[in-house]
């Protein structure tokens, strides 16, 4: 093979690779908005807010009451059809034993206010642990996913 032919083939290969890189860059830019929303949501929460969110929704507890829900607050504007409605998650502890926690899930539409949700959570906890005195550790209203 002649050196000129080899140089020509190499230049074609380099040109082709440049085009492939350009296509890949275009695909990355086109796909990135889907991930930018998730990253932006994570950056909006402070360390304290993230710690609270994890404690309410994900950290282990001794007892779960009700059907666990997934928070969809971040989808309310862009995909309102994905939201089932307002729900509550309540973390209760036993008086004198803070580490003995239980999580109560109140489904969308089951309560109208935070006071009603807390009362219902105490009632459900009392049925599960008769005679125990429960104290509120944390509670949050959230938009549940369908």
Structure commentary:
The chain is of the alpha+beta class and 146 residues long. The protein folds into two domains: 1-44; 47-145, no CATH class. It is 47% helix and 25% strand. Strands 1-3-2-4 form a four-stranded mixed sheet, with helices on one face. The longest helix is centred in the first third of the chain and has 42 residues, at 3-44. 11% of the residues are buried.
Question: Which helices and strands, and how do they pair?
Answer:
Blueprint: H1 3-44, H2 47-57, E1 63-65, E2 83-94, E3 97-106, H3 114-128, E4 134-145
Parallel strand pairs: 1-3
Antiparallel strand pairs: 2-3, 2-4
Structure in a nutshell:
This protein has 146 residues and is of the alpha+beta class. It has helices spanning 3-44, 47-57, 114-128; strands spanning 63-65, 83-94, 97-106, 134-145.
Would you count the extended β strands for me? 4
The proportion of residues forming helix, as a percent range, comes to 40-55%
**Count of the domains:** 2
Rg, please?
26 Å
The SS-based structural class is alpha+beta
- The H-and-E topology, N to C, reads as HHEEEHE
The amount of beta strand, in percent, is 25-35%
Notable traits:
3 helices, 47% helix, single chain, 4-stranded mixed beta sheet, alpha+beta, 146 residues
């Amino acid at each position: 093979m002649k050196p000129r032919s080899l140089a020509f083939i190499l230049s074609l290969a380099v040109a082709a690779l440049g085009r492939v890189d350009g296509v890949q860059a275009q695909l990355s830019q086109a796909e990135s908005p889907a991930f930018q929303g998730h990253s932006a949501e994570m950056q909006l929460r402070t360390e304290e807010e993230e710690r609270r969110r994890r404690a309410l929704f994900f950290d282990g507890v001794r007892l779960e009451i009700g059907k666990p829900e997934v928070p969809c607050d971040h989808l309310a504007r862009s995909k309102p059809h994905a939201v089932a409605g307002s729900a509550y998650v309540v973390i209760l502890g036993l008086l004198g034993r803070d580490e003995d926690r239980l999580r109560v899930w109140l489904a969308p539409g089951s309560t109208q206010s935070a006071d009603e949700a807390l009362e219902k959570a105490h009632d459900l906890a009392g049925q599960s642990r008769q005679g125990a005195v429960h104290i509120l550790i944390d509670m949050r209203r959230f938009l549940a996913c369908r």
